[in-house]
Specification:
InterPro entries: A/G_AdeGlyc_MutY (IPR005760), DNA_glycosylase (IPR011257), Endouclease-III_FeS-bd_BS (IPR004035), HhH-GPD_domain (IPR003265), HhH_base_excis_C (IPR023170), HhH_motif (IPR000445), MIG/MutY (IPR044298), MutY_C (IPR029119). Its cofactor is [4Fe-4S] cluster. This protein is of the alpha+beta class. Helices cover 42% and strands 15% of the residues. A hairpin with a 2-residue loop joins β1 and β2. α1 packs across α11 and α8 packs across α11.
Length: 351
């Protein structure tokens, strides 16, 4: 039995029952693939169900307000995915007459759709014979065939893609792709793989050579920098000043409080810091509460975050230059997209 047949046979007996595996609708496949980037299935599943319920079609998604999209995305992180999805949905409506492109090459033209996602939509939705190569696939192939190319390098990615395309099933490329990724997800796991009942246990070169722990090879490491945020929670009569984050920074398009951001640990808090960083001049005020330090890890940054709750006796005016600032009550705050760290603070201290 050749590789593809043996793999598919394993898959049919072991696969998880996931909703996006019961459809060939390219829109729903696209939704699932983008949501599951950098996200575990268990975490991504309720988001998928929520998006399908709110936006049953790509037309609904394209017509949605971006603030609603970001609000529904809240907690998943990598918010550029949601913004790119909204752009791509509008591209489908405007450039493709509301129908997703039906081939790998054209799918690549959509905003936020890379090689893996295009291959997934093309194979799952249209049975195009093109391999999907993700982290799970790198792991399985590198172990079974002892491929020692660096998966972070362009050359390494090309080698793995070529191998996967050589192995892919002629008749069932969609099932083959699902099977290869599923094997990496539940059988050939990063730690403690289930080698004893693997269908390729006899041929697996990494097992034979006892090098499973060093496959796949990934040499490039992400440098993580520290960043310090002091948020100013300015309240008057149960209303708070929030701002919408602009382009070119983390959390673009989400709402948070005025703040001070520094690369080094900040000095002690004072109302002068608020004026200096926000243009908001605080006169009569009480420092109602200083939170503990929240820590939040992003892909390239480690954030240290403090919240300073300032209760005003008299409402202050927002300077004309700060068109991104606005007063919002609790219900308005709940309705907009926010960084998850802000939601955690609000839930603990404000709501």
């Amino acid at each position: 039995m050749e590789f593809a047949d043996r793999l598919i046979n394993w898959y049919e007996k072991n696969k998880r029952d996931l909703p996006w595996r019961h459809t060939t609708d390219p829109y729903k496949i696209w939704l699932s693939e983008i949501i599951l980037q950098q996200t575990r299935v268990q975490q991504g599943l309720p988001y998928y169900e929520k998006f399908v319920a709110n936006f049953p079609t790509v037309k609904d998604f394209a017509a949605a307000d971006i603030d609603k999209v970001l609000h529904l995305w809240q907690g998943l992180g990598y918010y550029s995915r949601a913004r790119n999805m909204h752009i791509a949905a509008n591209e489908v409506m405007e450039k493709w007459n509301g129908q997703f492109p039906d081939n790998y090459k054209d799918l690549l033209t959509l905003k936020g759709v890379g090689k893996y996602t295009a291959a997934a939509i093309a194979s799952f939705g249209f049975k195009e014979k093109v391999a999907t190569v993700d982290g799970n696939v790198y792991r399985v192939l590198s172990r079974i065939f002892d491929i020692d190319h660096d998966i972070a390098s362009g050359k390494g990615q090309k080698v793995f893609t070529e191998v996967a395309n050589e192995l892919i099933s002629e008749s069932s490329p969609d099932i083959f792709n699902q099977a290869l990724m599923e094997m990496g997800a539940i059988q050939c796991t990063p730690k403690s793989p289930r080698c004893e009942d693997c269908p390729f246990v006899q041929e697996c070169e990494a097992r034979i050579k006892d090098i499973i722990s060093i496959r796949p090879v990934k040499l490039k490491k992400v440098k993580v920098s520290n960043r310090y945020l002091q948020y100013f929670v300015i309240e008057h009569n149960d209303r708070f000043i929030l701002k919408k984050r602009a382009e070119g920074d983390i959390w673009t398009g989400l709402y948070d409080f005025p703040l001070s951001e520094t690369a080094d640990k900040p000095t002690e808090f004072s109302t002068g810091i608020i004026l200096e960083n926000t243009g908001l001049e605080i006169h009569e005020n009480t420092i109602f509460h200083k939170s503990e330090t929240f820590k939040h890890l992003l892909s390239h940054r480690k954030l240290f975050i403090e919240f300073f709750h300032v209760k005003l006796q008299t409402q202050i005016s927002i300077p004309d230059k700060h068109t991104d600032y606005q007063w919002m009550d609790i219900e308005e705050i709940k309705s907009v997209g926010k960084p998850i760290i802000l939601e955690n603070y609000l839930t603990k201290y404000i709501y």
